[in-house]
Amino acid sequence: MDVIYTTDGSGKCILKSSDEVSAIGAMDEANSFIGIAKIFSKREEVKKILSEVQKLIFKVGGEISGYCKVNEDVCKRLSEFVEFFEAKVEKPRCFLILEKDEATAFLSAARAVVRRAEREAVKLYLKGKISKTPIIFLNKLSYLLYLATLYEGGEFEKI
Fold it and tell me: Domain spanning 5-158: which superfamily?
């Protein structure tokens, strides 16, 4: 096993330091944090949505890794989850400390990693390697995780 190269979706060798591997790595990290948040969540709605989100992340990862193109249905599904949470939470007009228990801490960490994955995906888009759909998905996912954190945690320390 080569420690410097890996293969992409087409079987082509690419450097492990490539933008593709960085983006997929960030998505894997985010998915792991989402999974941990799901385990710690006290709300069944959050657990169910996070479980579906994990599956969507794998679909989007397929495009980033070069296996397939992802369609806009993944973004539409995230939008449905966003609408659910927007109807349930009031968006604050100040900064909040969002980490108050295990679930909210892992949701917050997942959101930070998703934002990094989005930055990595933008690099790939600018090089013509992926469509805009993964970027739109990751942007929506970051917002969804913020809303899920608000829903999960209820009251937070205001800054």
Answer: Cobalamin adenosyltransferase-like (1.20.1200.10)
